[in-house]
Design brief:
two-stranded antiparallel ribbon, alpha/beta
Length: 179
């Protein structure tokens, strides 16, 4: 009887250890660089449709009414990426700029003032939700996704530098099916 209890206790400890090891492996794989590279939506995929109001009450939708919309997945921490901010300012100052919206995961009262301070007052700040981020398959930021008026993803990527913003804009401008 005692031998059976010892055997059962050892088996239970080994099962718990195996489950913990599997969870640790899954966590490591999901947070690796390779996993993050698969974030976002593929070019040509249908982007989630939504309609959200900015703090001033103006409605913004995706798919957009304009030919191209840039959805920026970030928050006030965007100030930690000065090169990305520079790339967004250049994009807004260029010829035929897309509609640019900053999509927050949760309400954030300081996001709009920080954007104004960074020279991005023309960017609409929208409060999304964790589920909307999940539908876009975005976990980390700043992440950019260009969406066309048909609701299709034209380009998407995690960005850290202004040249990446410019390159994504170039890719988004390519005719559908090219690239």
């Amino acid at each position: 009887m005692t031998l059976a209890l010892v055997f059962t206790a050892c088996a239970a400890v080994l099962c718990v250890a195996a489950a913990a090891a599997l969870l640790a492996i899954a966590q490591a794989r999901m947070s690796s660089g390779a996993a993050i590279e698969r974030d976002g939506l593929a070019t040509g995929a249908r982007a989630p449709a939504w309609s959200l109001a900015d703090p001033a009450g103006h409605a913004h939708t995706s798919p957009p009414a304009r030919p191209l919309q840039l959805v920026v997945f970030a928050d006030h921490s965007l100030k930690s990426f000065p090169s990305v901010v520079e790339g967004l300012r250049d994009l807004l100052a260029g010829d035929d700029p897309p509609e640019v919206v900053l999509l927050l995961r949760r309400p954030n009262a300081i996001a709009a003032p920080v954007l104004r301070e960074l020279g991005l007052a023309g960017v609409a700040v929208l409060t999304g939700s964790p589920s909307l981020y999940a539908r876009y398959n975005v976990r980390v930021g700043p992440f950019l996704i260009f969406v066309d008026s048909a609701g299709l993803v034209r380009a998407s990527s995690l960005v850290n530098y202004s040249w990446q913003v410019a390159k994504l804009r170039q890719l988004a401008a390519l005719p559908a099916g090219v690239g």
